[in-house]
Amino acid sequence: MIPRNVEETLKDIAKGYPVIAITGPRQSGKTTLSRYVFESKPYVSLENPDTRELAEEDPRGFLNRYLQGAVFDEIQRCPLLLSYLQEIVDENPLPGRFVLTGSQQFGLMSRITQSLAGRVAMIVLLPFSLHECYSRPEGLSLDDVMFTGLYPPVHDRNLNPGIWYGSYTQTYIERDVRQMVNVRDLTTFQRFLRVCAGRVGQLLNLSDLASDCGISHNTAKAWISILEASYILFLVQPHHRNFNKRLIKTPKLYFYDTGLAAWLLSIQDPRQLNTHSMRGALFESFIISEILKSRYNKGLPGNIYFWRDRSGNEIDLIYEQGEKLRPIEMKSGMTLTSDSFKGLMKWVDLAGSAAIGQTIIYGGNESMKNRGINVVPWHSSICL
Question: Does the predicted TM-score (pTM) go above 0.90?
Answer without folding.
Answer: yes
